[in-house]
Amino acid sequence: MVYNLPYMISIIKMGVSLLSIYLNNGATTWPKPACVPEAISSFILERGANLARGSSSGRDIDSLDMVISARQDIASFFRGYRKRDPRYVTFTGNVTESLNVVLKGFLRPGMHALTTSMEHNSVIRPLRRLEGQGVKVSVLQCDSKGFLNPEVLHSFLKENSVDLFVLSHASNVCGSIQPLEDLAAICTRAGVPCVLDSAQTAGVLEIDVEGLGLSACCFTGHKGLMGPQGIGGIVWEPGFAARVLPFVEGGTGSFSDDEHQPEILPDRFEAGTPNLPGIAGLSASLGWIVETGVEAISEREKKLGKRLLEGIRTLPGLEIFGSEMDRDRLAVFAMNLDSMDNGTAAFELSERWGIETRPGLHCSPLGHRTLGTFPGGALRVSIGFFNTEQEIDVAVEALGILAAEKAVH
Ligand SMILES: Cc1ncc(COP(=O)(O)O)c(C=O)c1O
Asked: Sign of torsion, CA 265 270 274 280?
């Protein structure tokens, strides 16, 4: 690490240690609540049986119990259709897999899929694959701050026949939160299934799957849900789930006499041994979130986000993309420094201040095109529940120093 004088002075002033400052929570939240590694380790050490593939020993029953309770807790967390009915929660490895299961299982040649210009590649890449197989794909243009105007969706659905609408609840690039209530209501009125990518919002914003009338809510465990990597899932509307074909088939530990994939849920979409330690970890993190409160998590992140925004808004030579307001947005900020490449900025922040961020295109070329930052991308600073005000102040100070250094070159 190379330290410079202004940085050392600012650090001493603020009494902040030189430990790493993690501001890459959009990629994965860190650290996790202590109950998460504890639950993973206790599952492996004390239970560790496979799911429905044993002899009904105590360990088998305990493991099965853990998975059923986790499904019920997820159903109730997302306010699924049949309350705590565990059948309508499918586990996957991550939200990318969830979106693939839904999109590739539902869309057939001749159908028409609609999405937005702020999507992650986990939505647009499966759609482009399907397009090559005869599915029509349309992309609604969001405004330059990353928001989709509900009127745009309304007009499109009035003039076109659409079989499915899929969207990200909030942008992983600039944090803009879509007006989901309005968008989902428009879909419900038009009879179009609405599929949500909740990667950036689950655990940070309340999501009422049944109240919104969503057909499927795809989630990932390792971001706002505070769980480990490698676990995600889908909360289904039962009627919609019945119209989706599984594309992974194999052993389920059930109906073993049948050479065909079981029709019933959750077995229909879950062939192969699931990530049981991951489910144990996710179950613990969900308990932590419920106890802490989504509202409290959201308020804390918002407050820290506001502090960052106020600190950097007026820095000369620093441009912020997306909403400059502190409402309608998550604490995920995209920015660029004048004449300093965002990769260099991320490197400098990391080397000199131990601040972890993420530069580049964030797996969202569409989003960056919408914001006008393609192909160069942007520096993303994403705040999490465990960040502190002091850490935000160091980041503001560091960005100010980088901007000023560049200005004199
Ligand atoms: C909006 C959005 N969708 C999808 C993903 C993919 O998440 P995962 O890698 O957990 O599947 C991400 C991750 O950054 C995201 O932010």
From this structure: negative
pLDDT tens for residues 143-172? Answer: 999 999 999 999 999 999 999 999 999 999
168 lines ligand 1 (CB under 6 A): yes
pLDDT tens-digit profile of 302-343? Answer: 999 999 999 999 999 999 999 877 679 999 999 999 969 999
The structural domains of the chain, with segments of one domain joined by +, span 5-23+293-408, 35-292
pLDDT digit string (tens) for 243-294? 999 989 999 999 999 999 999 999 999 999 999 999 999 999 999 999 999 9
Is the CB of residue 199 below 6 angstroms from any atom belonging to ligand 1? yes
Q: Report whether the peptide linkage leading into residue 266 is cis, meaning its omega lies within 30 degrees of zero.
A: yes
- For domain 5-23+293-408, the CATH superfamily is Aspartate Aminotransferase, domain 1 (3.90.1150.10)
HSE (side-chain half, CA atoms, 13 Å) at 334: 28
Q: Is the distance from the beta carbon of residue 28 to the nearest atom of ligand 1 less than 6 Å?
A: no
Nearest CA residue ID for atom 10, ligand 1: 94
What does pTM read for this prediction?
A: 0.94
Ligand 1 pocket test, candidate residues 28, 96, 234, 362, most atoms within 8 A of CB: 96
What topology is assigned to 35-292 in CATH? Answer: Aspartate Aminotransferase; domain 2 (3.40.640)
